[in-house]
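Exercise 7. Predict the joint structure of the components listed below.
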Amino acid sequence: MSTAVELARIQFALTIGYHFMFVPVSMGLGLMMVLAARRYRRSGLDTDRSSVDLWTRMFAATFAAGVATGLTMEFAFGTNWSAYSRFVGNIFGAPLAIEGLLSFFVESSFLGIVLFGKDRISNRAYYASVWIVFLAALNSAFWILVANSWMHTPAGFAVENGQAVLTNIWAAIFTKSLAPRFVHTVNATFMTGAFITAGVAAHYLLKRRHLDFAKRALVTALIVGTITSVAQPFIGHWQSLEITADQPMKMAAMEGIYQTGSHQPLSIYGWVDTANGRAVSIQVPDGLSLMLGLDPDHVVKGLDSVPPADRPNAQVLFQTWHLMLGIGTLLAAIMVIGLYLLWRRRLQFSLPYLKVLRLAMPLPVITCLLGWATTEMGRQPWIVQGRLRTIDAVSPTVSTGEVATTLAILVAIYSGVFVAWLYVVRSIVRKGPVPAPVGAEEAAGPEPPAARPEQVSQPGPGRRFRAGPS
Amino acid sequence: MTALQVGWFVVVALFVAAYAILDGFDLGVGILYAATRDREHREALHESISPFWDGNEVWLILIGGLVFAVFPAVYAAALSGLYLLFMLVLFGLILRSAALGLYYFKVPAARRWVLAFSGGSVLAGFFLGIIAGDLVRGVPLDANGDFAGGAGALFDPFAIVTGLFALAVFANQGAAWAAAKTSGPAHALSRGMRRWTAWATLGMFALTTLLAALLVTDHARALAGRPLGWVMVALVVGGLAVELVLGRRGRDRAAFFGASAAVVGLVGIWAVGAYPNIVPDRGGAGRALTIASAAAPHASLVAMAVVAAIGIPLAAVCFTAVYRTFRGRRGTSHEGY
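Solution:
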């Protein structure tokens, strides 16, 4: 591939990659925020209120970083992939526009209310707003995955005059890969949320701070984390079956299988000997045939069934896929052990385990990135599977120099955003689940605003949560 | 050209106007932020936009998505053709959103990010203006509908002037907003800003009009020949007059609506003069991207119309919720949202 295409691909991958670090964290924290709000709504205790505030702050910081890094994505198809945009715009652009119309407005508006409006709205409205933000984030994930899935399993269109023309909108939305992809991705974000929560709670337990909060948060995290991390391989298996049916070359590259045939092994760890067309690995004999067809005689397609120019990069795919599986298995084990320790009531005394939890925080994010890399690189050399090659999708008018320059600036800015995010999240965790929230409220004076008395929040029924020192 | 295609052109123009009004005021606050040294005033400026700016920015994202879906040829040609300009806008917007985020979390280092907030706003505002100027004037297009010309073609004098014009318009939106949302000394300072930014906007409007009459003759002629064009011009001048006159009498909300009407007029001037083109061809080969040639196929336009019929009322509900929750002025400098 030419340098221009390579650079455009690197720029796109970096843009999405940075963005996709924040997405699972924010969605996972969104779940924790909702669960905490639910508990608070039932108990009405100030301590519960503090934990809602903590997760909301962390969610907001991550969401903000996600928005900052996501901004370029809406335009990246036009700036760097104009040939692609012209070919599929009327189909692929639609879910992006729908995401904006049906989700971004809701998300940003109600997040503003949650962060700044605590004293201007009733508790019921506050509680509803937290839920709305979370559901809008899920809705947003749905539409962006609709767009993404269409690139993998395009449907509902016909090509006329070099343009993909929509023929059936439902077929274009609900493509074959959407359901497994959506469930797998969302489950991964919840898993991420559980690990971040568990890590923060373990940190407090190790530092002997905020013990009540930490114990409760850890229990929630272990339950959510065990359910999601144990379910994830099964959901992933569902997606594997879909990939094998719809994108067989992706599966072949993931396992480094070159020759079509039965009795295909499942690799555990190793590498692909690309020169000789085979995987050198520790493997389960007949494993892949059994996994995909429940039968050792099940035939799995190999890379040799298409010309070399139509194959994805087997070496990279093999590594990202097996690393994802390995780390994912480790994560499930961590959660199950935690649940066992909880059951034996030894959890908070097991310092090594708490240290593991704290160290494990970045792992689910890395796993998400590995999964994303596997599925997207497995689509190569196509940008729209079987329909349009990546090399034909790039903007013809944008020079290599321009892409190189903007790429360098983007890396600098995004790294700045990442460091700033780490810094903010660390300061939030340091402050902890304390009743005095950051933001404007911290500076709130005791006197009510003089100018507009109607803005003063009215004490009354339903304000129970808000009572107490602030 | 079908009615549906024209309808989508109108909707996109309305979205551009909504963006320019709403994100205009928070970009403007960012631009003015550097122009005041008063700490209380800076604080007040910040807090006047805190709950709003993120939602306002969504309009830009949405314009991106909508144009992608309904006018894919424009999305492809404009974004790749004006590549560096759009990238600079995005860099500016990312910088300022990072700065606003750090400010919200009261991070000690946030002071160093003042430059990022103000600089990002200026960068985004200026290059949005240049993009607007280039799209009004048109760009050289090749047979494929792609931009054909060097980066130099994007920085002609007319575009530089529209870039400065955009800074004035956004600053004016920001000052009018701040004057309506602050009280006390910050209010007095914001009112002063509003007066000079309104005059600056009026002056830049006159200069841009003059240049357009000389340089962008196709657009100017089309505009002058259409009654709706004159309505839009009247909206700009009338809106600014309302802002100046009623602002003087202390009617800050009315002044903000006056400024916003002027923004609608400016976007209207672009849309009425450009019709039926979206991106005129400056090469003179008649390869302009028109509403008809750039529009997505009928089925997609219908599908998007259904989505818009659900989404636009939903957006209206959200915005009403936010702007109602945070209505009124910030009481004193110690009482924020």
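Discussion. DSSP finds 14 helices and six strands in chain A.
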